[in-house]
Amino acid sequence: MSGLPVGPAASHAFGAPARTLRTIVRGEGAALWDAAGRRFVDLGATHGVGNLGASHPEVVAAIRRQAGELLYLGTGFDVPVRREFLARLTALLPPSLDRVFLSNSGTEAVEAAIKFARAATGRPKVVAALRGFHGRTLGALSATARKEFRDGFEPLVPGFVHVPFNDPAALRAAVDESTALVLLEPVQGEGGVHPATRDFLEAARARTLETGSLLGFDEVQTGLGRTGRLFAFERWGIVPDLLTLAKSLAGGVPIGATVATEAVEARFRGSHHSTFGGAPLACAAGVAALEVTVRERLAERAERLGRAALDRLAHLPTERVREVRGVGLMIGIELRERAAPYLARLEERGFLAIPAGPAVIRLLPPLVIGEDDLAAGLEAVERVLGDG
Fold first, then answer.
1. Which sequence spans correspond to the domains of the chain?
2. Domain 57-295 has what CATH class?
3. Burial (0-12, 13-18, 19+ Cβ within 10 Å), 111
4. Catalytic positions, please?
5. Confidence tier at 9 by pLDDT (50, 70, 90)
6. Residue 388: what pLDDT?
7. Which of 17, 137, 186, 212 could form a disulfide with 232 if both were Cys (CB 3.0 to 4.6 A apart)?
8. Please, what's the b/e burial string for 74-107 (b: 16 or more CB within 10 A of its CB; e: otherwise)?
């Protein structure tokens, strides 16, 4: 034993919630166990990071191998595992998206996309959507039009404009020759699980081409199979100029990726760097995570299970449920009241889901979740929303 204090007395986390948190000590697949040995099913506790579930054995094995060889090396040197990760990732993307900048998180990936767009176009303006969420650092937060996240940190970065999501006319009017980037989530996650319409994304693509602006898709939460496609933009067939990825990209190890076209890289002027971006450990985990995601056809599994889940949840009582929506295993249940009491009741029954705003229950189960566990989770949702 190290002699360091453990338990509640050692809880010094900045910004920790006032309520007592359940202590989770172990995970396997979609199952999580607390300190008392009780089993819970992850219906969103990993916030979209756990597409492969907790501690996937192939990711763990890759981390162990790499930790014994090389934990860290700066990007001024070539590392075979980084080269392999970049090759595997770009092989899954459209040919035009073949330049990748690696960082450590989704918000860093978005920051890089904003910088790349401004530097490549020489323009200041960024157009994003109301209700969207792109991160909490100052640039990514400036793209996030959510009062509860922005309060206390303003003034933010100038040059950001927000339009209603799924309003093609408003988007067309906002994008002009001063626009560097249109930044959109194909499915708004934190904002309530709202899928984009085809008309909206087509308007974004057409208007950016007309004005010489760049189109960026934030797929930090939607990427890697979550929506029933390997990347959500494949559902609409609209390819962006910039793409941000993170969360499940390395199976639970922190990583971020900003993917760009060769044309964006060629026009980029300036400097951008990440000390830990592309570290060997994260890249090794990423290689393993991509291998499992593709080999196990997890996007197709998410599509099948998600369709069945949406069909089942469509029968929830309308006096309490305003709408059920989503794609793949990314589902939002919008209530006519606050979601927190129902999330607490789900936890009492052994199922851990999360909110998406004050009135939405968000379901983001691992794509590897057993069908019995998913069915039990959906039954628990039905019961807590039906019992009142």
1. 8-55+297-387, 57-295
2. alpha beta
3. buried
4. 133, 218, 247
5. very low
6. 53
7. 186
8. ebeeebebbeebbebbeeebbeebbbbbbbbbbb
